[in-house]
Amino acid sequence: MKPPLGRPRDDRVDRAIADATRAILAETGYAQLTVDAVAARAGVGKAAIYRRHATKQQMIFAAVLHDLLLAPPPDSGSLRGDLTALLRDIVANLTAPPAGVVPALLADVHGDPALAAAFTSTFVAAERGCVEEVLDRAVARGELPHRPDPAVAHALLLGPVFAWLFLLREDPARLGPVTAALAETAATTLTAAPA
Amino acid sequence: MKPPLGRPRDDRVDRAIADATRAILAETGYAQLTVDAVAARAGVGKAAIYRRHATKQQMIFAAVLHDLLLAPPPDSGSLRGDLTALLRDIVANLTAPPAGVVPALLADVHGDPALAAAFTSTFVAAERGCVEEVLDRAVARGELPHRPDPAVAHALLLGPVFAWLFLLREDPARLGPVTAALAETAATTLTAAPA
After folding, report:
1. pLDDT tens digits, residue range B108-120?
2. Per-domain boundaries in chain B
3. Which of A17, B153, B159, B173 could make a disulfide contact with A163, Cβ separation 3.0–4.6 Å?
4. Which of B178, B78, B193, B194 is nearest to A193 (CA)?
5. Cβ separation of B155 and A169 shorter than 8 Å?
6. Does the domain at residues A7-52 carry the CATH identifier 1.10.3720.10?
7. Residues B144-169: pLDDT tens digits?
8. CATH superfamily placement of domain B65-192
9. A55 CB near a chain B CB, below 8 Å?
10. Candidate from A106, A163, A170 with C-beta closest to B107
11. Looking at the complex, does the CB of residue B110 fall below 8 Å from at least one CB of chain A?
């Protein structure tokens, strides 16, 4: 029997391209990665890549972002516990890609409206959904009188971790104590929030 | 009398290059900027630029970062007031460069160890000095029993603003209420910090 055509074969090519992209990112870094090298490594033609991704940046985005879509943490029974778990997931997310990839992707997002829209509707939306879920649980438990602005809560959680790693370039190994303090802060602020 | 040679003339060229770089960034954006265009606009040769800056990225960094070196805010009489003023300065800093320039510079910093060292010793060090000054004033006033870790305080202040503008891409016009809440949070957290 011949293998089925269509989706399954396409999925295999998609996966080969994404795997090759991630491998080359890890080996040579973002700036040195070329579509030629990815095509050779994946065993596909460049046309197969450009049928899927309009630009090199979109190809990298698809390969890296796929693994960065957060799911809500298990219900820990408290807002503080949920925020701690969510922060741990955010840290894992931001430290998983090879060095330099996250800042380079962010610059690409700001240079390409199509990537910006994709970034907001995938990465940001997935994280925002987790933030909302954790806040809604706290409301249901009676820990919060109503749900605070999820955008503000999101900025309070994601921002300091991103700043620590990519702006201040502090030691990632010190993030443990920082995220514990952050979860404490965020829980305190959100429970005290007037609006 | 002839004008003095040496420094003054060099300063004029430095300034012409920086002004041309900023003008072109504002007009055409980061990705489109070329050293040729800057040289033509500044009325200098490309050699004059490359004597000063090893790469295009270093030229842009020098032109943009120069204006982003924070000084401590005036003493407002309280930690909360000082943090509010400092956050307002951080927002002004991050929103001053043309769209896309801050994320592009950050990617450059992560792609070039020389730029990374310059970034840490200028932009980060200037902001960190402001954070330390504001914390030291609070200790002197008796608002804080001792100075909290300045790196953590820095991440708590800078991170959410950066995330709001460049990761979540929320409305910059809404940053006013967000920074007020942030200053409140940071002051509460820092005064409650156990270590």
Report:
1. 999 999 999 999 9
2. 7-52, 65-192
3. B159
4. B178
5. no
6. no
7. 999 989 999 999 899 999 999 999 99
8. Tetracycline Repressor, domain 2 (1.10.357.10)
9. no
10. A106
11. yes
